[in-house]
Every structure is written in structure tokens, then in C-alpha cells.
């Protein structure tokens, strides 16, 4: 009797959490999966089962492939650069010098700003003729550009914004990790004859491995998750040159109102992110725990 | 591997307002074991780190061998160091930790292997070479840290309280091992500790520091037998030397045969030199007796309320309240100025001989 009562109490206690999780995470996930194998309801026509038709359409959708490809370039360019920059900045502001707090704040500020604000700032930088960048380029005697309007530069312009925004955030993780490394380790290395570079490569960097992995994987996830700047700055243009996967989903779902196809794309995106997450847990749990 | 002379001249180091090291000069000859001793915060570590090149000086110079290394970085001073926290690289195995410096200095692989085998055998850590530091006990980590310092075959080795994390038994063992190794290899050792027993038992030369300056330096026996100041007298020896105020007329009469002569002086007595002398010693009352195994420590209170103790062989317990007469040999009398704590050997001649003292004490 009391055992059953206990069980009942238990279920009652987790009921709020479970119902919230079910209502806002599990149910939508299942619904999305279901929607991806049905047709989009139009007017009086209710959705009907279409099997893998949506997926077949997706395979034939050039914009999907273009977005996936863009996203890949976007990830491969932003991740290494922002992580390397983050590490460099962390190393710079980890030493003591006058105005250190100010330097840390300066590096961290882009992270605090909302992406929409960041996008607006950079919109000004990229403005043809009057923008900061064109002024600079003009000053150096080179031709002006429509940075966001040309196929060749638009995606790279967005990549620069993402790096600018993300590096400061990752720097914080590196800074925390650097402060965890006892100063005596560096001193011991110095006494053993190691110069600053050897000390960094053989001692500091290996000890930062867990942080690097953590940052890498978060950067990878972010690369598939950030969309605000695309919406504000280019709306995927010119000619889909800056359409990222999430932006494509946004367009399909909320501009073309093709909810079934949007669901299909979402399933693909979630699958990619899940794979990344699985990778993350595998590595974080096994390889880097040397202590 | 042979040692090199380390000479430190008038070094000073400031941290903002505090003067951590104030004009310290010392010298460690080839193959000597020199200990920096002193209470917490007296500047031992700072002095050692200055010698290592891990801190810059505000004044003075450091010479190793015949080179002035004051401005050289740590890597170019040809010395090795054992940190209090061991500072082993947590991501490397024991072998990698040991070989780190040799690889950095591009020692040939054959030579590396030869030295690794030798050091591992010397410290009996052969079985641990493939482990990570986190998989070692405190004593084993300590050995590895020691090994990393020895494998470099640097002529000078610095150690900053390397034994403070170990239990009493292991500490005793490691003391003997470190000393034996140092003698066998002939390296010059500069060793920091706040444990006077450690300093006394290991060193050729002890440098006692107090508030950033050297209070006294010399052979362990010099510091023990002829403390130059009250600070040294109190710091060296266990149990500590008792200090009695000679401005007390009764005590002054007992020591000098005159109640006035002791004004402004302090009397230092080591418990191990004080013994009961039925009939003719300084009258005192036993307050407590502490049985230590080999001997017994009697805590007594003399006339005038001053404390002194006597260390007696065996289980010579006495009930509290028992009256005793205490005496000590003339050469065990230490006199100090009450004002500045300086030793006053010149006043020893004022003390009557033991024979007259025995008579005097019978009179009073
Ligand atoms: N990095 C530092 N910044 C400011 N003050 C310091 C620093 N390092 C040491 N000090 C000060 O210098 C003085 C001497 O310190 P030091 O570490 O040399 O003492 P120590 O004799 O090694 O003491 P312990 O036995 O406790 O290790 C102390 O007053 C300490 O507070
Ligand atoms: Mg210290």
C-alpha cells in the first residue's frame, strides 16, 4: 500500500516537468517526423500520407543542396578561425598588464550584443561606397565592392560577422581553462629549458585539450543554429549564395508555407545536430579525461 | 656531474610596499647542502625563486659558477628545481615527465634512455614509468619530481619544501635519501624548509631568515650552540630554549651573585642542559612532566614565576607541586640583551664559577 502511494507521489512530483518536456519537446519532435511523411494541408485538402516523397523532393531541391554546401563552408571557415582567435585573445589577456580588465571586456563585448544589433553594425561596415570597409579599401586605392550583394563575397561577409561575434564567447572558456593551469607547471617547463613556444605546445595546449574539444563542438552546433544575421543582412541572397540550412527551413516554412517540406528539412538538420552531439559526448567522456 | 658554486650578493625583492627579501647574501660552495630556514613568510621561497630566475630582483646579483646570471632566464641558468607542489605535468606519463627537459635540450635518444634507466633505478620508480602522475601516491610523485630534477644532471639543484606534503615516516626516509643522493652525485643543493629539525639534520650550512633578512648563518652546530640572537635561540632546537628575565633580582643573584647585575639581560637555557641538583640549584616547582619515551620533559616554575624546563633521561616523572633545585653547566648559559636580542658573551665573565655558585645558592 505505502509502496504504491510512494510511487504515486513520485509520479505526481515529476508530472509538471514531464508534461512540459512532452508538450514542448517530444510531441513537436514526433509531430515534425509525422509531418515530414505527409503532404502539406492546403485549403480544404487535409494532409495525406506520402511516404518518402518529401525526402525525394528534397534530394532534387537545388536550394537545399546549395544551403547545405553553404553551411559546410560556413562551418569550416568560422570554426577554426574563431577558435584560434579565441585562444590567441585568451593568451593575450591572461597575462598581467595595465588595462587588462578593459581588454577582456573589449574582446567579450560582441558576445553580449544581440545578433540583430551585430548584424546592423556590420551592415553599416559593408554598405557600398559609404561603409567603413569600402572607405578603407578606397583609401588603399582599391575598387569598391558591394560586399553583401556579390556572389563571391556575400557568404564570406557573413562568416566574418560570425567569427567576430563568436570568438569572444569562446575566449571566456579558454581564459577560465588557462587560469586553472598552475603557474608552477609553466615555471617547471621554463626551468627544464623550454622556451615560450615549446611550453605552449607541450604543456599549455595539451592541458587545454578538453576545452578545445568543448569549444569546437559548440562552434559546430552554432554553425548550424545561427540564422539572425542572414535574415537581417542578406535574406539568403544574392541568388541563395548565403542561404544556410536553417534559413532555408525558415523560408520554406514561413514564406512559402510548405510546412511538410519544412518538417522534412528540420528532420535532416536535427539529425546532423544529433550526430554532432553524439560525437561530443563520446569524446568528452572518453578521450580527454586524463586526470 | 659536479656541483657549481652559487653566490648571492645583497639581493632585494619588493612586492609593492612589502620588502620580501632585504639584502640577502649567501654562498653555497660546490657540492654543499645549504638550507634556507625560517618562519612562514620570511622570504625563503622568494630568495629561492630569485636564484632560479623565476622572479626578477630589485637589487643585488646572483652568480652560478663563474657566470653572473642575474639577468638570465631560468632556462639558461643550468639548474633544476623541485617545487613544493611537485609541478608534474598531468598529461604526461612518469617517463615523459622525466624526459621532458632532455627532449627540449635535444639530448640524444641513447643518452636519454641511459639516464632514464639510471634515475629510475636510483629512486626505485622503474615500475611506475608508464603511469600518469594522478595514479601515484604522494611519496611516489615526490620521487618523480626529484627524478626530474636529477635527470637534468644540472650542477645546482633547488628544492622548495619538497617534503612538506608527506607523512612523518616517509619524510624521515626521504630526508636521508635526498641527503645521500646529493652527496653521492656531488651536486650543490639549496633547500628551503621551515622545519628546523630538517635543516639541522640535512645541511652543511644553515641560513636562518627572519622578515626578509638573514638572522644568522653557519653550520647547524653553530646555530644550536651559539645562537647570535634571541630569534635564533628560540627558533633552533626542540623543545625550544627557555628564556628567563634576569631583571628578576632572585634570578640575577643566582646567576651573577648580585641582584642588580642582570638588569636588561635575558637568560637562555636549553632544557637538555638543565638538571636537578639536590641542595644547591635554582629553586623551582614542578608544574607538569611529560614522558617522551627516551626522556622526560619537566616543566617548572622558578621563583619570580619564570618558566624553565629540564629534559631528564628515562621516565623521571615527578608529581606537580614537587620542589626541585635546578642547575646547568656554565657553558650552557646563554645571555642576550633584553632590548635588541643580541647575544652578550662578554657578560658571561660576570658569572661566578660553578663552585662559588653552589656556595652562593646555599647562602640565599
Ligand atoms: N607574488 C607575490 N605578491 C605579493 N607578495 C608576495 C608574493 N610572493 C610572496 N609575497 C610576500 O613576500 C613575503 C615572503 O614570501 P615567501 O613566499 O618568500 O615566504 P616563505 O618564507 O617562502 O614562506 P612559507 O614558509 O610560508 O612558504 C611574504 O610576506 C609574502 O606575502
Ligand atoms: Mg615558501
UniProtKB/TrEMBL annotation, chain A:
Pfam families: BPD_transp_1 (PF00528). GO terms for biological process: transmembrane transport. Keywords: Cell membrane, Membrane, Transmembrane, Transmembrane helix, Transport. GO terms for cellular component: plasma membrane. It is found in: Cell membrane. Residues 68-278 form the ABC transmembrane type-1 domain. The keyword Membrane applies. The chain crosses the membrane at residues 72-93, 105-125, 154-176, 207-227, 260-281. Coiled coil: none annotated. InterPro entries: ABC_transporter_permease, MetI-like, MetI-like_sf. It is a multi-pass membrane protein. Its main location: membrane. Belongs to the binding-protein-dependent transport system permease family. This is ABC transporter permease. It comes from Telmatospirillum siberiense.
UniProtKB/TrEMBL annotation, chain B:
Pfam families: ABC_tran, TOBE_2. Residues 6-236 form the ABC transporter domain. Keywords: ATP-binding, Cell membrane, Membrane, Nucleotide-binding, Translocase, Transport. The keyword Nucleus does not apply. InterPro entries: AAA+_ATPase, ABC_transporter-like_ATP-bd, ABC_transporter-like_CS, ABC_transpr_MalK/UgpC-like, Mo/tungstate-bd_C_term_dom, NA-bd_OB-fold, P-loop_NTPase, Transp-assoc_OB_typ2. The keyword Nucleotide-binding applies. GO terms for cellular component: ATP-binding cassette (ABC) transporter complex, substrate-binding subunit-containing. GO terms for molecular function: ABC-type transporter activity; ATP binding; ATP hydrolysis activity. It comes from the Bacteria. Belongs to the ABC transporter superfamily. This is ABC transporter ATP-binding protein. It comes from Telmatospirillum siberiense.
